[in-house]
Structures are given as C-alpha cells and as structure tokens.
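RETRY 2/3 - previous attempt timed out on the joint model. Re-submitting the same 910-residue input unchanged.
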Amino acid sequence: MLQARDVTFAYGGGRGRVLDGVSIDVDRGAIVGLLGPNGSGKTTMLKLLAGLFQPLSGSITLDGRAVGSLPRRELARRMAVVPQETHSTFDFTALDIVLMGRYPHLGAFELEGANDLAIAREMLMATGTAGLEGRRFATLSGGEKQRVVIAGALAQAAEMLLLDEPTASLDLGYQLELALLLQRLNRERGMAMVLSTHDLNIAALLCTHAVLLKDGRVLARGAIESVLTEANIRSVYGVEADVRFHDRARHVTVVPIARAD
Amino acid sequence: MSRWSPLREPTEISVEKAAASPRSGVAGVAPRLALTLTVFLAVTVVVCLLAPLIGSTPVHLSRVFDRGIPFAENVDAQVFFIARLPRVVAAAIVGSGLALSGVVFQALLRNPLASPDTLGVSAGASLGAVLAITFHADVTLAGVPAVPLAGFAGSVGALAIVYVLAAARRRGTPGTALLLAGIAISALLAAIGRFIQYFADFTDTFRSVQWLMGSLDVGGYAPILAALVPLTVALAGFATLPRVLDLLSIGPESAATRGVDIVRAERVALVSASLSTGAAVALGGPVLFVGIIVPHIVRLIVGPEHRLVLPASALFGASFLVVCDLVARTILAPVELPVGIVTAILGGPFFLWLLFRRVL
Amino acid sequence: MSLSWTAPDSLALGPAGQAGAGARGLAPAERPQRIVSLVPATTEMLFAMGAGDRVVAVGSYDHFPPEVERLPRVGALLDPNVERILAMKPDLVVLYGTQTDLQTQLSRARIPYFAYSLGSLPDVALSIRAIGSRVGASGAEALATSIERRLADIRARVAGRPRPSTLLVFGRERGSLRNIDASGGSGFLHDMLVTAGGADVLADVPRQSVVMSTEMVLARAPDVIIEVRSSDEAAAPPDLRVWDTLSAVPAVKNRRVYLLAGDEFVVPGPRAVTATERFARTLHPEVFR
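RETRY 2/3 succeeded.
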C-alpha cells in the first residue's frame, strides 16, 4: 500500500545524509513501527512518508502513485498524521481542532455541517476526550492535547494513520488506552498505521512489523519479533537487554539490563 | 449519515445532540457568520454615515445637498464632499486594509503580536516616502502623486525582498524564516531612512516625519480609486484564506497533512497582505497599531475562527480608524492631530489591558 | 540682490566709529577679526553691516551674499563641527542660543561667542544692533535704522487699506493638499504678513506653524493664499493647480493664489524687508507699482 524504496534524504539538499537507502513496506492492515535511537531519522522518515518533504533519491508511493504527486487534499483523505507536538496560536477549542480534520472532505468555501460535527464529537468520544470539547486547546495537558489531535486525525477518515511518538506525553493509563484504541481501529477498520517511537515495549504491544533505523540506515526489518532481538538492540542502542515473550501481555517485552560496552 | 466511524455509525440521537449543544460549534458557523457580518456591517455603515457630518466646522446638510447653489461656490458642499467624505472613505479603506493584513500576518507567523510592520512592509513604505520627499520627486501616476506612489513601491519591494530571503532557506519553518527576514529588512530599511533624513535638508526631514505620523486628508477621490486597485486584488486573495489560516495557525505541517497547499497558501497570504498594507500605507501613511489592535479586539468578540475574524476585522478596522480620525480632527480644534497619534495613544492602554486580562 | 551700507555723515558716531543703544565703545584693536557665523541670518547681517571681510567661516546653509560660497563651512544647527570651528582660530563665534553644548566647548577653549535667538520681525533690527556692537561694525546702526524705516514705510503705504485675510503656506506634500504647513498667529512669517497689510487667517492660533486640513482651509475661507518656498525648493515647477479643487475658497475663486520663492522668506535677516515688500506687492498691487 505505502511503499518507500531506497529513500535518501538530507536537509538543505546536500551535506549530512539523514536517511540513506531506506525501504519500507506498509501493507493494508499492518501496524509498522519506525524504531531507533534519537537522531536515527525516524521522524524525518515519517515526514517523508507523509509527503511533507521530497526524497533526494528513491521513491515513496501510495498504491503505486508517488506521494509527492498526489493533490494534497486527496492525500489527506487517505493518510492522516499525528505530529509529536501541536501548538495552537489562537484560542481554538478542542472541538475546533478536531473539526479541522474535516478540511479535506469539504469544498473550498463549504462550511462544516451537522455530519462533520457529529463525526468530530464521535472521535472525541473515541479518544476519551468528549468532556474537553469546549475547553481551550492551549490549556489542556500534554496527554489531553495528544488525544485531541488523534481525534482530529481520526476525523479525517483516512485509511492510514502516521503517528510521531504518540505515547510520549501519555501516562501509563492513557498509553494503554491509546494502544487499545489503535488496535481496535486497526482490527475493525483495517486501518494501516506507521508509528515512530522510541518506546520498544509499546512497539512490541502495537506493531505487527517494524523497521529499525540506525544513523539513517535500516538495520533490521520485518515482523516485530524478528526485529526486536537482543542482538539488534545491542547493536543499535548499545544496551544489553532481556527480550522475552510475556504470557499475560501476549507480546514481547524488552527490559534493559546493562550498557553493552 | 456519517461516511466513516471507527466505532459505529453515529445514531440519530447523537446528531440531534450535536446540533442542540450550547457551543453549537460549527454546525452553527453559518448562523454565527451571518450574525457577525450583519452586526459589524451595521456598525460600520452607521459610523461611516455619521462621520462626515461631524467636524470642527458646522455644516448644514440642507446646503450641502442644495442643487441650487453651484458646487464651485457651495462651501458646505465642498467641506462635505472634498474635505470630509474622502477622508472618511480613506479612513475606512486604510483601517480595513491594515486590519486585514494584521490578521493574516498573525496567523501566518503564528504570532499574535505580529503586524504589518513585522515583515518590513511599513518600513519599506516609509523609506519610499522619505526618498520621494528628500529628492523632491515629481511624478504623478493616475492622479496619485509621487510620495504615496513611492510608499506603495517601497512596501511591495520590501516584502518581495523578505519573501526571496525566506524562500532561499531550506531549513526551519517558513514562519520563522519570514519573521527573521522581516525583522532584518525592517531594521535595515529604517536605518537607511534615518540616514537619509539625517543628511537631508531640515525641511525635508520635517516633512518626512510628518508623513510618518499619518494623514487621511486626501482631499479628493483619485488617491482612493488608485488604492482600491491593489486592495481589490488583495481582497480576492483574502477571500480564499479564512479556513486555511485556521489550519496554518496550528502549524504548517499540520495544515499540510490536512490537505492545505501551504506554499501556495503562504504566497497568496503574503502577496495579499502586502498589497493591502501597501495600498493602505500609500493612502494614509503608516498608521500605527491598527494592524495589531483590531484583530485582537475582534477575536475577543467573535472567537478565533478566521471565517469570522477576517470579515469582522475588515469592518471593525474601517470603523475604528474612521472614529480615530474623527477624534483626531475634532478634539483639539482648530488644530488637528495626526491620526497616528490617536491610534498610538489608544495602543498603549490597549496592551496594558490585554496584559491584565491575561494575568487576572 | 546685495545691500551695501555706508554710514551717513550726519549720523553721530561714537569714538570708535560705531553706535548702538547701550554699546560700549570698542577700540579697533578689540574688534573681532576672525568671526565664524553658523546662522544664515547672522551671516547676512554681518555682511550687510560691513563686517563681511572679517568673517572667516560660515554655516552649511548660508548662501547669501554670494561671497560666502567661497568660505569654508563648519556645520549648522544640528551638526556643528567643533574641530573645524577651532581650526579657524576664531575670536568670535556667532551661534544659536540653543546650541548649549557648543557654547560649553567654546567657553572651555576660551573663545567668545554670541548667542543668537530666532525671533520675530522687530527682533531683526535689534539683533543687528546687538551684533553690530559686539563686533564693532560701523554700518550696523544705519542698517538697522534703514530696515526699520523701510518697514515703517510699507506699513504706512498699506495703512487704511482693507486687509485681505491671507493663508500663508510654507510647505505641503508635492502634488497634493496633504500636510499643509501654514504660518500661525505668531512668529516671523506672521509679522511680515501683518506688516505687509495682510490679515492672518490663522491669527487666533498662537503657534508658529499649523498643519491645515482641507476642511480648515474651506472653513477659514482666506481671500489670498500665498505659498512661500526657499530658492532650492523653487527649482521644481509650481503645482498650484492642486488648490483648484477647493473652488469655494475665495482665494481660489478669485485666482489669488501665489507662489513666492526666495531665501529671503526663510532667513530672518536683513532681506526680511525684501520679503515683506514682496508680500505687500502681492497683497496690495495697486499701491506698489
């Protein structure tokens, strides 16, 4: 569905390569994790996948069509992005933020209708933020903001969701809730997802597949269990970790033990 | 009903609830838009109708419209049609032009303290005018004399420079690049302007200082018609922007991933805002604070949505400046204050009030 | 146009060859020989009273009489060049009363100075006498008296004639009627106008300059509008046509809008008389042929 082939990228078009020869496959219904330490290029890769930047070489296609060539509105109807942080300059409410997600479905001068409003409210409910509807977005906590933004991304009614560090500002309870929500979306609607995260346990919980990046290159790729190995973790993070399948959680867990030097 | 829901189709009940809830939010944008426009338009019309009737000279309406008296001898009519009416129209145009570009710059730069001055547009206009005054420029184009022409050219030129500088960067958000380039160009152009003033003849320096304080006494309709040309183009651009500005104000990348063509949107916004500022500054000089105060007050009344804020700011900006000019020309009669002084006097307390609102 | 004055023999002169109310006589040895003048008005006065040969440097804006073009320049009101002034080794510096910093510096260098303050028309003659006594110029008294006499003469000739209400404009935005700077009810231009037999339409506004709006012009309905320009501004072709839009103003209706150009209108010195005469000729053409 979404395919990146041999993508190379450097900011400013020249000097330091942030990504080198990265290939990623996101099939329908998959949840792909972009993993790696800080500075490995995860966020940049996510932005490239979203069509925000153009690769220096290589291609990024959505169902065969280059992402950069699709009209933005059409792309937005198929792919929604949840950035790491969102800042509202003006006094928009949480509902306003979510309603902005309906933009790709409306005509140039069309106003949001009852249907759009219903969808927006629905999404707020889905992320557990219905009670924050009339609150000013700027006054919400980090976790609440994140959930509202996710609600907005859901309101875009896209078939694919790209998330940048989605659980970074959430507490344990909301991390789990979000993970369950994403799983449900994936299961019930077949929504494909790409999420970049440095939280390996969340990745293990959520992702079906993963791409492990180190210094802009792909170190490992494939099913999540094959990527999250002690060898890979040692190689990328320099950490001795204990990786084992957790019976109750029903997924692999990663526990760091010691530095690997 | 809903084309898509992650959980279930929304039921009839929830849609009704949606429509009936207190912040009918945006199923209510249409009625709120209609209400806002009606109220603001009514206020503006009333202000603009009353303003030409008020002034330091008593004027008799009956004489103004008395066809029996030849216009060339009808002092009341000339006061009304030559001295006051163009002034009110000019104030309305300048006020709405500056307010509109203030709204757009604040959204574009994601900074509520941004104004037409921030991107060097006012500094460019000032430099153009100072040059025209100092070198005694003597061209007239379409009934517009040299100084306003130079002001317009200066403001558009400054913005072009800022845009080229910002576009040349590849890193960083466009907003930051624009802001930095704008501040740099503003400072540079202001410095050049001062340099010229310092070495100019004392009289010329005095005249450019006068120009910088703003004057709406256009005394005729030619400058107004000339200003309407770029302003109309700007309005056409502004008309495409409201929802886009909402989205841009959350962040350009967020806007892009929701379907906004941010490069095109920024270009349209910048060009329109600079045309509208250029026209306003050329018509009335760089009147301070209108571009900052009006958007803030309007947002306090109608909320942050640009579909309301843009038209309301245009209307409120017009009324605001008409009233300020009215005060400027009557409060110390027979002497007149430059309108920029009145807006500046209002500007300071306004920001104090903003500050206290936030703190309390 | 230059002025040259010789003291009439019949005038009683003091022992040092000069007079002046309350002047202490100056021996020729005490008279300043190297005078620096920063003020255009005082430069003209010095030359007119016969002390021009003792002027060694002038201000940036001094252009009369033509001889001053050959003299070195030392700055003016806003930017006096102290080093160049000192380099001239002056024994008297004529400067503006407001140039207090310069005065302090000159005192420290023990150089005497004469502080001149811009005033109104009667002050011209007074200043001439004061400067004359300070520099020991024999022609000063005669010059001052002549100026007073000529002004009195103008007054006499226009006395009893109806005074047209006049708007005296000394600046505006070129090509339009914006930012009109007019002379108010006080100051040098106002005095000249009144002496010349005009009534200042802004006589009730006690300011030297007033910014006029088109409404004010229509309301005050002057009979005559006179625009004055300095000589370099006069280089541009006149654009008096802009006044035509205000056709209800008597001055416009009766085609009594004039442009007078020349430095005598902006320098309150001996040529003020010439300026006043030109005003008078404009306002009362029938009396001055």
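Chain B touches chain A through 48 residues (CB under 8 Å). Closing ticket.
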